[in-house]
Amino acid sequence: MIRIPRLIYQRMVQHAREQWPLECCGILSGRDGTVEKAYELQNEEESSVIYSMSPQDQLSVFEEMEKESIDMIAIYHSHPHTIPFPSETDVKLAFYPEVASIIISLMEEQNPVVKAFRIGKEAIYLEEIEVLG
Ligand SMILES: [Zn+2]
After folding, report:
1. Which residues surround ligand 1, an ion (CB under 5 A)?
2. Ligand 1: centre distance to CA 99 (Å)
3. How much is the pTM?
4. Which of 112, 91, 95 is nearest to 24 (CA)?
5. How many whole angstroms from 3 Cα to the centroid of ligand 1?
6. 12 phi/psi in degrees, rounded to 5
7. I need a labelling partner for 48 at 20 to 30 A (CA). Which of 12, 24, 40, 61 fits?
8. DSSP labels for 28-80?
9. pLDDT tens digit string along 48-81?
10. Residue 104: is its pLDDT beyond 90?
11. How confident is the model at residue 95 (pLDDT cuts 50, 70, 90)?
C-alpha cells in the first residue's frame, strides 16, 4: 500500500499532462509507505514510449533524501497513449524491486488512470494506492 497526499497525487497527474505527448518521470519519497515529497525529473529520452532519468538528477534526489533521511517509495512515469501496465522496457529497467513503479495513463484524456506495481524478477504485482486528504 502506498499512501499519497492528494496534492502530490494531483500534481503528479498534472506533470503527466504537461509533458504529454511525451512520457514524464519522477520520484516519490517519504517514510513507511507514506509519500512526503515528489521530485519531477526530466525525461532524457524525450519520448512518448520510454523514459530515462539522468544520473545527475537521480544523484541529487538521492542526496536530498539522504539529508532528510527519507526513503524512495516509488518511481513514476506516464503512458501518454497506452494502458497503465508496465511495458516490456519498464520491466527490463526495473532496477529497484523494493521501489514501486507508478504509471499514469493518459490514454483517455479526460480520465487519467494511476496504478502502482511491484516489478519482481518472476512476476508483476499490483500495489494499492490510497490518496490521503
Ligand atoms: Zn512505461
Report:
1. 87, 90
2. 15
3. 0.96
4. 112
5. 21
6. -65, -45
7. 61
8. EEEETTEEEEEEEE-BTT--SS---B-HHHHHHHHHHHHHTT-EEEEEEEEES
9. 999 999 999 999 999 999 999 999 999 999 999 9
10. yes
11. confident
Side-chain half-sphere of 53: how many Cα atoms within 13 Å?
A: 23
Per the CB < 8 A criterion, the answer to whether 70 and 43 are in contact is: no
CA of residue 101 to ligand 1 center, whole Å: 9
Which grid cell sits at 67? 539529508
The answer to whether the beta carbons of residues 34 and 3 sit under 8 Å apart is: yes
Q: How confident is the model at residue 93 (pLDDT cuts 50, 70, 90)?
A: confident
- Give the count of beta carbons closer than 10 Å to the beta carbon of residue 63: 10
Task: Compute the distance from residue 24 Cα to the ligand 1 centre, in Å.
Answer: 10
